[in-house]
Amino acid sequence: MLRRIDKNQPKGFEFTKPNLNWVKKQIGKYPKDRKQSAVIPLLYKAQEQEGWVSKPAIEVIAKMLGMAPIRVYEVASFYFMFHLSPVGQKAHIQVCGTTPCMLRGSEKLIQICKEKISKHSKELSPDGQLSWEEVECIGACSNAPVIQVGSDYYEDLSADSFLNLLDKLIKDNPLPGSQKKRFSSEPEGLFKSSKRNLEESTNASVKLYLEATISEKNKK
Ligand code: FES
């Protein structure tokens, strides 16, 4: 996969104060002569802050870690989790296109992305709210087809539920997890039809998401 930095770059980059504190803590975890080991967490934080990894961000990180910028760029361009061009303001949708997801309908999801977001992957939608790309297996094959948005997975999708999800991603924060309301990857309907009853109404990942959303809202 050929990955290059975007032609349009911002003038500069600076970590926000809370992020800078976090970054310093990460660097402090490593021996002084091994601080380059913090390159992935720092790139990840820069992306979390800006939505993507720009050339100025690479240069700032390189300076902080005493590395040549090209070495940081090599890391950022190797892992597809790092976006090297701007992504949708509301969501960047990563559609898994590997065999299990493909057999369960990911090609339809990709077609919808082309029609509703942009003809080509990694391009912004006309209003700049969404972008998409096809990725390799993201490790949730038993709930295929699956998409990833940030750190959330939306699973068990169909063309209809995906269209619905696109709307919701723009308007609010849709609940991640199975879009067919499976608890995890049990056979469909198992917990409703058998005597087994679940004590929790949502699984651990959904709970984490809800906690994070609530604490985010409380901060505002
Ligand atoms: S093949 Fe799509 S998550 Fe594994």
Walkthrough of the structure:
The protein is of the alpha/beta class. The chain is built from 9 helices and 5 strands. The chain has helices at 17-28, 39-50, 55-65, 69-78, 99-103, 106-116, 159-171, 190-193, 204-219; strands spanning 91-96, 130-135, 147-149, 152-155, 177-178. The protein has a 5-stranded mixed sheet with strand order 2-1-3-4-5. Helix 2 runs antiparallel to helix 3 (55-65) and helix 3 crosses helix 4 (69-78). The model has no long low-confidence stretch (mean pLDDT 91). The structure holds FE2/S2 (inorganic) cluster (FES). FE2/S2 (inorganic) cluster (FES) binds at residues 96, 98, 100-101, 137-141, 144, 146.
Quick take:
The chain is α/β, with parallel strands linked by helices. The protein contains nine helices and five strands.
Helical fraction equals 40-55%
> Can you identify the CATH class of the largest domain?
Alpha Beta
Mind summarizing the main beta sheet?
5 strands, mixed
Number of continuous helical runs: 9
Distance between the termini: 40 Å
Radius of gyration: 19 Å
The CATH architecture classification of the largest domain is: 3-Layer(aba) Sandwich
Number of strands: 5
Structural class: alpha/beta
Strand order of the largest sheet: 2-1-3-4-5
- Bin the strand percentage: 5-15%
Shape assignment: globular
H/E series, N to C? HHHHEHHEEEHEHH
CATH-derived topology of the largest domain? Glutaredoxin
Mean pLDDT: 91
User: What low-confidence regions span 5 or more consecutive residues with pLDDT below 50?
Assistant: none
Ligands (ions, cofactors included): FE2/S2 (inorganic) cluster
**What's the number of structural domains?**
2
CATH superfamily caption of the largest domain = Glutaredoxin
